[in-house]
Design a protein that fits this description.
two-stranded antiparallel ribbon; 17% strand
């Protein structure tokens, strides 16, 4: 189902998309690039996005200047930090010649890094974009 939406071209390579979900719930939002200016056609990085709509949410929840964006930045930064700390600790284990248990543990940490790399790259890019937006508009950064 396609929800009503509008697109505003900011004339600087950025677009603002407004949409109204048809009901409360979680939605997957797919955004495809049409391939103009020699770019490749297809989904933009990170698409599909997951959005959650609530019946009685405050309008401020949708405001890029609001606490929701700041909390998202804080949460994704903390998740990356926790994952990095746990991975660094797991990869720092000393392994002796016959230490299969620790060798398997290190292998699992490396597998986790490989599986999570794309997810964290997208999170980092999203956070950087949000922080640039906040700085450009004179907003306080949620990260001290």
């Amino acid at each position: 189902m396609i929800a009503p939406f509008s697109i505003t071209d900011k004339k600087n390579g950025a677009y603002i998309i407004h949409y109204t979900p048809p009901s409360a719930g979680k939605f997957h939002i797919s955004i495809n690039f049409c391939g103009t200016f020699r770019g490749r056609r297809g989904p933009i990085r990170g698409s599909p996005f997951i959005s959650e709509a609530f019946v009685e949410a405050s309008v401020s929840c949708n405001d890029l200047n609001g606490k929701l964006l700041q909390e998202s930045i804080r949460m994704t930064t903390n998740n990356l930090k926790s994952f990095s700390n746990a991975t660094t600790k797991g990869l720092s284990k000393a392994i002796t010649k016959d230490d299969i248990k620790n060798l398997i543990s290190v292998k699992e940490h490396l597998r986790n890094v490989k599986q999570k790399t794309k997810e964290f790259e997208i999170s980092i890019s999203s956070n950087l974009s949000a922080l640039r937006y906040m700085k450009k508009n004179g907003l306080k950064s949620p990260i001290a």
